[in-house]
Amino acid sequence: MKIVVGILSALSMSLMACDTPVKFEQIDLGSKLSDPGITPPPVPEISFVKTSGACAADSSTNVTSCLKCAIPPLPEVKPPMSLKATQLMNIMATACPINRAYYGNKFAATTIADHLAKLNRCSPTAYPDSAPDAGQNNVVQRLLGGDSALLNKMFTGLWYKPPYSDYFETYFGLEVGQAIQVFCEQSVPNISGILVPSSTAPNPYGPRWESGDPMPDMYVKANDYRDGLAYCIQESKRNPWQPSGAPPVAKKCSYQTMSGPAGSEVNAQVSAWLAAGFKVGADLKNQGLCSAVSSLAEIQSYQGEITVGAYICQ
Question: What contacts 58, CB < 8 A, 6 or more positions away?
Answer without folding.
Answer: none
